[in-house]
Amino acid sequence: MTTDGSPPRMADVARAAGVSTMTVSRAFRSDGSVSDKRRDEILKIAEAMGYVFDRGASEMRTKKTGFVAVCVPSINNPNFADTVRGLTDAVAAHDLEVLLGYTNYQVDREEQMIRQLLRRKPEAIIVTGGAHTLAARTLLERARIPVIETWDEPSEPVGYSVGFSNAIAGEMMADHFIARGYRRFAFIGGKTENDTRGVARRRGFVRKLEAAGLGPVHLVTLGKPPIEARHGAEGARMLLEMHPQTEAVMCVSDGAAFGAMSEFQRLGLSIPGDMAVAGFGAFEVSAYAIPAITTIDPNAHVIGQTAGTLIVQLLRDPASHAMKRHAAIEPTLVVRQST
Amino acid sequence: MTTDGSPPRMADVARAAGVSTMTVSRAFRSDGSVSDKRRDEILKIAEAMGYVFDRGASEMRTKKTGFVAVCVPSINNPNFADTVRGLTDAVAAHDLEVLLGYTNYQVDREEQMIRQLLRRKPEAIIVTGGAHTLAARTLLERARIPVIETWDEPSEPVGYSVGFSNAIAGEMMADHFIARGYRRFAFIGGKTENDTRGVARRRGFVRKLEAAGLGPVHLVTLGKPPIEARHGAEGARMLLEMHPQTEAVMCVSDGAAFGAMSEFQRLGLSIPGDMAVAGFGAFEVSAYAIPAITTIDPNAHVIGQTAGTLIVQLLRDPASHAMKRHAAIEPTLVVRQST
DNA sequence: TGCGGTCGTGTTATCGATAACAATGACATG
DNA sequence: CATGTCATTGTTATCGATAACACGACCGCA
Q1: Which residues of chain B have pLDDT under 50?
Q2: How far apart are CA B99 and CA B97, in angstroms?
Q3: Sign of torsion, CA A131 A135 A138 A142?
Q4: In Å, what is the CA distance from B102 to each residue of A19, A89, A128, B128, B195?
Q5: What is residue B258's predicted lDDT score, i.e. its pLDDT?
Q6: Nearest CB to B81: which of A50, A81, A119?
Q7: Is residue A226 reached through a cis peptide bond, with omega within 30 degrees of 0 on the bond before it?
Q8: Do B262 and A97 make contact, defined as CB atoms within 8 angstroms?
Q9: How far is B185 from chain A (nearest CA, A)?
């Protein structure tokens, strides 16, 4: 506290400690060359005065904000929450903070969000997926910071990418269904334009089955993402009405799969006898549902962790730009009783 | 882009547009008094140059960071995710961004997180719960910004509070159990020290039942929060082993309730015939489980929205300090088939 | 004793935008 | 025509910390 009642600045702490501002500045950093005695003294005085270090002023001079920006579709989705957690954990040890934005699965909101995030001058930016508006892509290309696209395997990444092919994930489930001997298939998912990754999974699933001569795959398309249990339940009703002969259905998310399975059961079907159900995402609910639901684990936490580790490396050693541009995170098929 | 390859600053845009830096600054703000023609011209030039406004430099001069800090236990919990979403939605329209931190339910990490958040000079800070370390409380008291404690009804709030009494939420469920005619009760939850709100719910639940002469209430205590499906399942096994005569159990969260119910079913019990199960949180899974799970909806999104609205009001009109300090968000009992 | 090196500390200029104030021109009004 | 008002634009100092440089004290070693 200063005499005039304004919050204390570093200079006020310096005055109180009888040293120069520069010495206080050094005391607040780990690398600062100050004698231990002085540092303790200064920090104690600062604490007593209620001094709070001003990161904003610091970043103006150092040009280091300590921010890693990340843009995800939604934070209510456990998968993206896991990715953010993995990222945060990986970068926190290196004095980096995560600046989070979400788009509610709207591409134009992504552009706006990226614009907003970049104004904070993050040291790196992580986005979800490889599909962006042209303007958004330009923003990322011009940003002069590491750009990481996650949850996807973009054919032309802006910078780096950490993720997997959602189409292949869809194929994995198709292979599993084929191996189990099912014949008539369906896919429950959301509207095409909003969730490009969900659409890619559907494409892979359908392509593989039709290539095996097991088409057509019936598509049940619900509203905008996120597609959750209530949509799954609605999709289940629609499916039984339109294509009651279906034997196995993949859902775009585990939430939807759970909702669909519950609805099938309510309507008297036995799972997997009358209908096999699978999801995507390895939500916790899938493991504890009865029957437990077959799913694909995208290893969301690992995606975040890997992206975080990559960022730390790029920031510490900018020369490492030569390394490979894509980190493949293999999704895992988790077979359970529902198929 | 400047001639030397460094990112352009406002002065570079000004030079390119043949105006002063100040005019460019004004063009970038909604209130700036610049002729429309000039503004369009300037913005177009800025865009073409790839200029990105530097929010950090701006905030140093204006002393407005545009940040609202929020500290939650976890972002994987759908309840807190909803609160953050409600908050973000409420403040976004007023040019405020949410700076998010989470503590993994560790009180000492909360202190550290608050310290870190405050260094960014947020314009307001929102924390979860009313229990903090002494140092954390001091930090909040000295911060000279609006402080809002959520998800609780602190007896001595630091500043404002938005939430409900978790003890009363526990009592609500006890009342419901009593009305349904159950006699032998249990509560499945986490370790005491880490989740004060969960503990409060348990306390209310137990107190009410014992006051009605329906004790003792058996407590099944698992590990550290978050307490999810796997803990619920484990708790269910423990409960059947130690107190098989139990008729109705409340779980600290819906995740745990779902896991417990599944496990009871796996072990051959019928719900609610052999065992009634209730949760807390109104997770989507509860509505689609079979049977659907009775729960308490804390209206998490409303909590966030209300806190956001309050902040906007306090920042716009600092004189409104006189208004009431607590906004009560009533939790709703949602009775379903599991009880 | 003299020299170079290290350690701890101080001085000055600076990061990029903007508040506060000043100045200009256009137009209205008496 | 003089004066006032308004809208628009420019000039200067500044927010709070720190990089870069300078400097003195002290050390070891020849």
Answers
A1: none
A2: 6
A3: negative
A4: 36, 11, 21, 10, 14
A5: 98
A6: A81
A7: yes
A8: no
A9: 23
Taking residue A314's Cβ as centre, other Cβ atoms within 10 Å add up to 20
3-state helix, strand, coil in chain A (%, to 5): 45, 15, 40
Residue B319, pLDDT score? 74
Enter the tokens of residue B124.
Answer: 């307001």
Are residues B99 and B69 in contact, defined by beta-carbon separation less than 8 angstroms?
yes
B162 residue type, one letter? V
Query: Under an 8 A CB cutoff, do A7 and B98 touch?
Result: no
In the structure, what pLDDT confidence band is assigned to residue A167 with cuts at 50, 70 and 90? very high
List of chain A residues whose C-beta atoms are within 8 Å of the C-beta of residue B235: none
pLDDT of B322: 57
| Amino acid A36: pLDDT | 81
Return mean pLDDT, chain B. 93
C-alpha span between A234 and A256 (Å, rounded): 9
- A13 by DSSP, 3-state: which? helix
Max intra-chain CA distance, chain A:
84
Map residue A327 onto helix, strand or coil. Answer: strand
CA of B33: nearest nucleotide by C1' is D8
pTM: 0.94
Q: How far is the CA of B89 from the C1' of D21 (A)?
A: 49
The answer, yes or no, to whether residue A2 has pLDDT greater than 70, is no
pLDDT above 70: residue A149: yes
List all nucleotides in chain D with at least one atom under 7 A from a protein Cβ: 7-12, 14-20
State the burial class of residue A9 (Cβ atoms within 10 Å of its Cβ: 0-12, 13-18, 19+): middle
Query: Could A233 and B288 be called an inter-chain contact, meaning their C-beta atoms sit closer than 8 Å?
Result: yes
